[in-house]
Amino acid sequence: MPSAKKENKKYNSIRLLVQFLAFLVILVNPFLNYYWHFNFVQGWYQSLGVGKLWFVSPLEGLESVLVSKTIYLPLLVGMLIPVLVALFLGRVFCAWICPINFLCELEDRLLRLLRVKRQRDLFLLPKRLLWFSLIGDITLAMILGAPLFVFLSPPGLVGREIMMAVYFHTLAVEGLVVVAVLLLNLFTRRFFCRYFCPLGGLLAFLGLKRKLRVVRAKEACNACGLCQRTCPLGLSPQRGESEGPYCWNCGACVDSCRFGALNYRWVSDPAGQTDILPRGE
After folding, report:
1. pTM
2. Is the four-CA dihedral 248, 250, 252, 254 of positive or negative sign?
3. Which residues, other chains included, contact 31 with Cβ-Cβ below 8 Å and sequence gap of 6+?
4. Where are the domains of the chain?
5. CATH classification of 212-266 is 3.30.1490.10, yes or no?
6. Residues 88, 212: contact at Cβ < 8 Å?
């Protein structure tokens, strides 16, 4: 049986710091824009401008192209970097930058600080729902003739609510969607992120052949199951699910492994990961 060894990895702490800095951008930016007219950074993570460089969320960009039936070159350029990041790193936006996940992590830490015991993952659904949410969102957007996720995206709503508060001293009713997401997180970790976020579905699809993966060393694994209990998405790295499309490379399982069996690896030829859905799904 492998013996436990101490690991010096601090991915959880680094991730929380990165999330905080990313959240600070959309929190402070409206004040800079409105009160000091400092417009070097504009927008939020649906469409974020830094100087003359714009980053556009791949799903919002795709919806806009499909709804308008127009190829707008600046829009495609804005989507390029996020798409390339997803192709190489998978759903890292979801784990490391998304304001919704940041708020969920703060919620989790607050509950632990208050020593509130809760039953984890009460509502479990098939993981493949993530793909249906993506297909459904795109289909509805084309039927309605409007980019649906642009208006109701929980990550986008966080930035929009902050902007509404600063510019108009009010909040929009759509912000209740964010409240609902946080409430669902009390019963099932990252419920919305696991099953119903179409942006997460698109990034997972783009990252099917991603190069950065959490890989398990079989000879070092003690099969203790701690990695699955730690994973915010309820995945089992022990069964290789950290190498599948649903994993968002957060590193929580790597930190939790007392045997050093889990580590990030650059995979040049991700054999066995050609299917969209893992076996058994």
Report:
1. 0.90
2. positive
3. 166
4. 11-206, 212-266
5. no
6. yes
